[in-house]
Amino acid sequence: MTKIESHISKFEPISLNEMNDVKLMSRVDTKFVFNKSLLFEILPILQEDYRVLKVDEQRFSRYRSIYFDTPDFLFYNSHHNGRINRLKIRFREYLNSELCFFEIKKKNAIGKTIKSRVSVKKSCRSLHEIHHQFIEKHLNNNFKLNYCHENFFNRITLVNKKLKERLTIDFNFRFKSHPGRMINDVKNIIIAELKQERLNRDSLFYKIMRKNGVRKTGMSKYCFATSTIFPKLKSNRFKPNFTILEKNNN
Q: Domain of 227?
C-alpha cells in the first residue's frame, strides 16, 4: 500500500450513486497547486469533514483525457488571452470503471464552469459524425478540430459531508502527443480543485490552503501540456503558473 493509499483508507467511503447530489455540472472551480509533501499533512485534517469516492474497492481513479483544438489553437489562445467565454473539447476516460464520455467544458462570463457530456464506447484521436453533431447541438458551431494531445493522472475525489462541494486531488500527472514520448516531469505536484455551486471561502479545504500560504491559481493541465508540446505558441501569460509548478516540483 502506498503512502497516499494508506491515508485515504481512513476516510469514510461514498459510492458513485450517492454522489448524484453533488454532480455540479454547473459550478465554480477553484484550483490550488502544491507539493505532494503538503498533501500528507492535510489529509488527516480532512477526514472528519469529507468522504472519499470508492469504486470497485478503489479509492482513487485513473484518468485519461484526449483533447482537441482548432488548427490555429483557438481554445488554447482564448485561455491564454484571458477570454471570459472559453471552451475545452475532450474525451474523458475513467480507466478503473471503463466509462468514457465525450465532453464540452465551457467557462462562462461569470466564471461558472458548465459541462455537457455524452457517454461513448471508447475514446479516439479523431472525431466522427456523432461527435460533431454533439458539438453543433451544444455550441451551435461545428469547429474544425484536430487531435492536440492526451494526458493521464490519478485522482482522489472527496465529498464534503455538509456542504454541496467536491474536492478533486490529482497526482502522477503526465502527458504526450501522438506520436510522441510520454512527458513525466511533474511527479511531485498536486493539482487540487474545489468544485462548488458558488465560491465558499468557509470550506475547510479553502481555509487549509490559506493557512498554508497556498493561493488559488488558474492552472490548466490542458494549457500546460499544450504549451510544453507546442513551444512556439505564446505562453507568457502562463509563466506565473509555470513558476508555481517548478517551485513545487522539487
A: 3-248
